[in-house]
Structures are given as C-alpha cells and as structure tokens.
C-alpha cells in the first residue's frame, strides 16, 4: 500500500534575487574580490618577466596591457559573464553545480569535475598568500626596512582565526568597501592616464596580437597576463549568492575600473623609464605620495575581503562535494543565520597552514607569482569541458557547441602552456596541492563505487515482511528499541540490502515495535526537498524515501521524526512508548547504520591501493553518524563483510582441501595395502 503523505519542494530563494542598487553593491563585495585585487601584482609580474633593458619599452607594455584588456573581454566577459552564467542549476553556479546538471547522463565526467574542484581548492591556498603579501609589500615604498613576512603571517593567522565567527553583519559592508576600492582604482588610473591618453591605443587588439607573435618572451609573460582573470571562476561560483543580473550589471563597472587602472599603470611605466627596476610595483607608484599610506591600508583591506570571500568559497565547494559524494564527510558549522554561509574547521586549519607555508617558502610576491595561475587555468579548462556536455544535454546545435568550446579551450590551453613554464619555479606547489586533493576525491569516489558494486539485495516481499513481524512478536528476543530505523541505499521500495538482512535476522535479531527503512537520495536540484512514505505493513513496517538537493543539510534524524509524526497524524502508526509506566511519552528510537568491511576479498592490484586509501580516509574523517546528523546515543553502527559471496568461496576452498586430504589418506592406505 503506497501512501504519499507529503510531496514538497524547497527551491532556492536566491534564484529570484531582486535587481537593484543593493544587489549590485553586494555582488561587487562578494564576487569581485579576487579579480579586483589583481592590479596589485599583474603589471608588476609582467615587468619582472621582461628583458632587463625592455622594462619601459612601449611595444612590450602596450602589447601586454592590450592582452590584459582582451583577456578580460574574452575570458571573463564573454565566457563567464555572457555564456557560463546561463548554465545555472536553479540559480546556483560553480563547477560542481554544473557537474550536478550533467552527471546522470555523463557519469564519467566526475573526473573532470574533481580535477576542476581540486584546482580551485589549490588556488585557495595560494591566492590569500600572494594577495596579502603584495599589499603589505607596498609599505616598502615608505618604510624600506619594514619586516614584510612577519606582518603577512600575522594577518593570515588573523584572517583564519576569525573564520569561525563568520562575517555576519560585517559582510553587508563588504560591498560598500569594495565599491569604494574599485572607484579608487579608477581614479588612480585616471590620475596617470589623462596626461598620456595615447596609451588608449592598447584597446586595439593588433597590439596584443603583435605582442604574442613578435615578443621573444611572450609565452612567459602570458602567464603573468593570465593573473588578471583568475577571479573569473568566482563569478560563476557566487551566482547563487548574488543573482545573474546583479553580477552582469556590476561587472560593467568593475571591468571599466580595472582597465582604467591597468592603463594608468602602463602610462606611468612608459613615461617614467628612469624609475623602473625589476622589483618596482607600478600599482603603488601611480599613487600620489600623500596618498600612499592610505592606499596601502585600503589595499590590505581589499585583500582581506577578497581572501575572506575565497575562503568562504572553499568551504562551500567542500560542502557541495560532500553532498554529491565527491568528498568524505567533515563536520560543517553554521556561524551565522545567513543562508549558504558555512564553516569547516578542518579545512580552515589546512588552508591556514598552506597559506603560511607558501609565504614562508616563497618569501615574496615575486616568487609566489611563479606558483600562481597554473591551478586556476586547469580549473577553467575543466569548466569549459563540462560546459560542452551541458550544451549537449540541452540539445544545443553542434555548430554552436563545438566551435565555442574549441575557441575557449584554445585560449585556455595557451595560458596553461604559458603557466606550465613556471612549474619548476613554483608552479609545482599548486599542482602538488591539487594532486593531493584529487587523490582524496578520486579514491573516495572509486572506493565507494567498488563497495557498491558488491551490493546484494533481498526482496522485501511478503515472506520477508512476515519474518520481520515474527521477530517483532518473539518475546524471547530482547527488545532493542520501540522504533527501529535502518538507513538503506536500495532504490526500490521492494528491496533491501543483504547486509541489513544479516543485521536484522542473523548477527543479532532485532526486535522492535515498528521498523522503518530510510532511503536518502541526493538530487541534482540544489534546494529540492521531497519525501514519500510507503506503508509496507500498517502500524509495523514503513519505507521513507528522502529526496534532498545537494545544498540541503542532511538532518536525517530530524526529518525521520517529523515524517513519523506526520504518519501518526494519518492514524497509520502509534509512536507512543509500549512500556506501561511511560505510555504517555513517545517511544524510543534507534538508528542502525550497517557498514561493510574489507575481509577475505580478492581485489586486483589496481584497486587495492585505492581501497587502502579509501579505508584510511574513512577512518580519519567524520563518521556516518555525524554525516547524517544523528544523535550518537540513538545510533548503532554494525560491521559486516563487504562481499557475502566470499564465504561461499571459502567454503568451496575448504571442501577442496578436505577432498585433497581424503585423496591423500586414501593414497597412503592403498600403498600400505600393496606393501
């Protein structure tokens, strides 16, 4: 008897974020921190990559700035703002949201998704280091002997220490602060650009093309140019927080301010060749002397806000990855009431340690520039690949999908080749971090899939239900709970895993008054929440199907109790305690999680290390009890062998040994008789 007691949906309210001045300013504060602090180091890095006698050569400077302008136009504006932002998942964006849209049809694309996610997380370990140290290095202009490294480490520690508090009410001022920052960028650029308007020729793409073709070190410098667009992925990731129209409108202002600032820096470099050296930072030099200390303080504040947004984004990526079964469960906290804001302590500690290690290992922004950019290039490439499959899933014509994908891949591949040149100079750091994260994710996914391949199921038919009722009525069995809940992965309402059968009837028969089988399915829609109940035996056996979006928190015990209450209201179950002294109280509940262990399993040499890593990860990370948000006092975890059929193999082997022994004994007896 199937009875659907509730069938509801929770859609993302951010999908309809209103467009207005508040939304636009909020988008500037949330989305553009990374890309908005890139003027701190992009032109500085370009100059550092030029030959010694060409630091102020107009051909190089105008060509490089032209490349910056057109990179922002093609890569950021065209790819992300115009095209990629359309690939939203009920208003949510980001590489994992994009993967969630296509994973049912293209299952293997999980590899693409985790490469991109791993690269993004690796970038989160480098960006705070290079952004903050570059801002603090501006103090060298005023105080040449100030200790940069200790100040940077202190600020990074402060940044991560305050993460458990959340941004809260302070976050609403980030938009205003970053709007002021972009306005200052524009004014500083105009201050140096207006006397030298001839620099505006950099808008001509011919300068960029000539630079790429003719400049002998163009490939190396392209790696520095790419840093102007590293924050583009954040536009897509923060789509759900700000809304499509707010991001698009605000980008117009942000892009204008960025380009004016780059042009102002270029004008200063070209017309002040006598002041240029390999360590000069044009960003601080375009400031009037009276404004430099104020500018450095503002740069540090902007860097702080940018890093805050990036770290929060890392927590969100991990949270989404857990929901999509791409990352082992870790404890998630909610420091504020702001929707979508999460804090993950273990990730916070790891990112903090990595950022400080980057500062101490590379010691300067110039050295860190070599480590920066490679990982994010890889992430952008993966987004482009997933975007192609999104086009295919939505039946976009091939004449549109293929040329567009190849166009962006050719640009990003060029940047990747340029950045790979820096591998032995520091780029290896980001690849090592991304590689380590990828191994964790791949081993976790593959390990879970290998275990699922060995899943066996029993029919939840009348005979099976009769056994449950018999156990429930058997007074010789000690009652384990009034209401017994089993978490199952069986997709059919008429099947149950063999491991649950083993737990229910064989390991230790479990007598209860009511039995509930809960199936949890993570859905592709981010904020979907549905549940339905099948009454298998009235007042005795039930199945609950929970369909939860990948951005909905998994409070399984809370959901189960709520659904049980709704079932009682329909007069289909009695939740009262069966003990006479407390009949007026609700009966006790027990949640059983059945885990399978690796015992006597013949695994090939390829999967053996993967399963070993998976088992190690499983032991180190948070348990399923925490993952499902179940009170430990009401939970029971049982372990059964991963492959039940192995016992049959063992029995066959034992029989073979017995037969061999019999033959051996028979042979000896025959030889004795002959003698």
UniProtKB/TrEMBL annotation:
<feature type="transmembrane region" description="Helical">
    <location>
        <begin position="59"/>
        <end position="82"/>
    </location>
</feature>
<keyword id="KW-0406">Ion transport</keyword>
<keyword id="KW-0769">Symport</keyword>
<feature type="transmembrane region" description="Helical">
    <location>
        <begin position="370"/>
        <end position="391"/>
    </location>
</feature>
<feature type="transmembrane region" description="Helical">
    <location>
        <begin position="398"/>
        <end position="417"/>
    </location>
</feature>
<keyword id="KW-0472">Membrane</keyword>
<keyword id="KW-0812">Transmembrane</keyword>
<feature type="transmembrane region" description="Helical">
    <location>
        <begin position="174"/>
        <end position="194"/>
    </location>
</feature>
<feature type="transmembrane region" description="Helical">
    <location>
        <begin position="142"/>
        <end position="162"/>
    </location>
</feature>
<protein>
    <submittedName>
        <fullName>KUP system potassium uptake protein</fullName>
    </submittedName>
</protein>
<feature type="transmembrane region" description="Helical">
    <location>
        <begin position="249"/>
        <end position="270"/>
    </location>
</feature>
<feature type="transmembrane region" description="Helical">
    <location>
        <begin position="290"/>
        <end position="311"/>
    </location>
</feature>
<dbReference type="Pfam" id="PF22776">
    <property type="entry name" value="K_trans_C"/>
</dbReference>
<dbReference type="InterPro" id="IPR003855">
    <property type="entry name" value="K+_transporter"/>
</dbReference>
<keyword id="KW-0630">Potassium</keyword>
<dbReference type="GO" id="GO:0016020">
    <property type="term" value="C:membrane"/>
</dbReference>
<dbReference type="GO" id="GO:0015293">
    <property type="term" value="F:symporter activity"/>
</dbReference>
<dbReference type="InterPro" id="IPR053952">
    <property type="entry name" value="K_trans_C"/>
</dbReference>
<feature type="domain" description="K+ potassium transporter integral membrane">
    <location>
        <begin position="24"/>
        <end position="460"/>
    </location>
</feature>
<dbReference type="GO" id="GO:0015079">
    <property type="term" value="F:potassium ion transmembrane transporter activity"/>
</dbReference>
<dbReference type="Pfam" id="PF02705">
    <property type="entry name" value="K_trans"/>
</dbReference>
<keyword id="KW-1133">Transmembrane helix</keyword>
<keyword id="KW-0633">Potassium transport</keyword>
<keyword id="KW-0813">Transport</keyword>
<dbReference type="InterPro" id="IPR053951">
    <property type="entry name" value="K_trans_N"/>
</dbReference>
<feature type="domain" description="K+ potassium transporter C-terminal">
    <location>
        <begin position="485"/>
        <end position="634"/>
    </location>
</feature>
<feature type="transmembrane region" description="Helical">
    <location>
        <begin position="206"/>
        <end position="228"/>
    </location>
</feature>
<feature type="transmembrane region" description="Helical">
    <location>
        <begin position="108"/>
        <end position="136"/>
    </location>
</feature>
<feature type="transmembrane region" description="Helical">
    <location>
        <begin position="347"/>
        <end position="364"/>
    </location>
</feature>
<feature type="transmembrane region" description="Helical">
    <location>
        <begin position="423"/>
        <end position="445"/>
    </location>
</feature>
<feature type="transmembrane region" description="Helical">
    <location>
        <begin position="21"/>
        <end position="47"/>
    </location>
</feature>
